[in-house]
Design goal:
This protein has six helices and 17 strands. By secondary structure, the chain is α/β, with parallel strands linked by helices. The radius of gyration is 21 Å and the shape is elongated. The structure holds NADP nicotinamide-adenine-dinucleotide phosphate. NADP nicotinamide-adenine-dinucleotide phosphate binds next to helix 4.
Length: 302
């Protein structure tokens, strides 16, 4: 017989773990399922300085605290990949390991790194191509590297890598940054950081590992090769909601259609955090969604 819970939370990032905290404090039995490691995207952020009430904390420390808080309050955590969820008064959640039953589901699957789509990008991931500067930066000590993107992640990655690497190129397709001006100014002051603006990477050079990149200026069409050993791709995220395509409505980008109430069109199914349609995807908004969805699911269960 399948194990039964009041609420199953899919994803143990900030939204999922916060949902677990609120639902368990509302007296419900909660199982939280995560296919990789708990913590979500924030574990890759070296220093969080915009979470209200906490001036500085590392992403890892933040996630660890959240995990201990959730499990300490009674959320049951299991590392399993969710394969499908069926609709109905009692929902069935099939995972890589088991099948569970529950009355409500909170989807908090976040988003995954967007690839650039270059030929051999996938093949060279781990051989010079990386999507996580904090995880892989130390391998490129004293080497030249490039960061692609103009958002906060690319700027943060650039700053982080500039502490290890000989030279850091920040390659952005426009001449204005999407990320915070304060971070742009910090990078401008660094002697080993060079901005390559209005430019895109057209090719990765090297046989078995990254040895360089070909870069094209989109305004002048000028092409040049940069000799770099590391290519850090930081061009945003995309959702990973295909497993739920038959269960809830997705928007054109693949995010789950749910508003600030975190309710999907399917009774008893909620979407919280970066996986849902929204304009601001931040740590605070993920935590906020977790609270809203956790309480709504607890009310639904009754
Ligand atoms: P983002 O803000 O969506 O920025 C993505 C960047 O990549 C943009 O500059 C975009 O260029 C560029 N880009 C997208 N597709 C591209 C492509 N195919 N080729 C070349 N460039 C491409 O993503 P993010 O930096 O990962 O940040 C995601 C969210 O997390 C944001 O809300 C951000 O503020 C937040 N965040 C916050 C912090 C913090 O506060 N400490 C740290 C990290 C992230 P365009 O600008 O031309 O569109």
């Amino acid at each position: 017989m399948s194990e039964m819970f009041d609420i199953i939370v899919i994803g143990a990032g900030t939204a999922g773990m916060t949902a677990g905290i609120y639902a368990t404090r509302a007296g419900k039995s909660v199982l939280m399922l995560e296919q990789t490691a708990y913590g979500g995207q924030i574990i890759n952020t070296p220093d969080i300085e915009n979470y209200p009430g906490i001036a500085h904390v590392s992403g890892f420390e933040f996630a660890q605290g959240l995990y201990e808080q959730a499990t300490g309050l009674g959320v049951l955590y299991r590392s399993e990949q969710v394969l499908s969820v069926t609709d109905g008064e009692i929902k069935r959640v099939k995972t890589s390991e088991a099948e569970y039953e529950c009355k409500a589901v909170i989807i908090a699957t976040g988003a995954k790194n967007r690839p650039l789509g270059l030929e051999r990008e996938q093949e060279l991931t781990g051989a010079g191509v990386s999507y996580c500067a904090t995880c892989d930066g130390a391998f490129f000590r004293k080497k030249d590297v490039a960061v692609i993107g103009g958002g906060n992640t690319a700027l943060e990655d650039g700053a982080f890598l500039s502490n290890y690497c000989n030279r850091v190129y920040i390659i952005h397709r426009r001449d204005e940054f999407r990320g915070d001006e304060k971070d742009v100014a910090t990078l401008r002051d660094k002697e080993n950081v060079e901005f390559v603006l209005d430019s895109v990477v057209t090719e990765i050079l090297g046989e078995d590992m990254v040895e360089g990149i070909r870069v094209k200026n989109v305004k002048t069409d000028e092409v040049k090769d940069l000799s770099v050993r590391g290519l850090f791709i930081a061009i945003g995220q995309m959702p990973d909601n295909q497993a739920f395509a038959d269960l809830v409505e997705l928007d054109a980008q693949g995010y789950i259609k749910a508003d600030e109430s975190c309710e999907t069109g399917t009774p008893g199914i909620y979407a919280a955090g970066d996986c849902r349609t929204k304009t601001v995807r931040q740590l605070t908004t993920a935590a906020s969604d977790g609270a809203v969805a956790g309480l709504a699911a607890a009310r639904y269960v009754g």
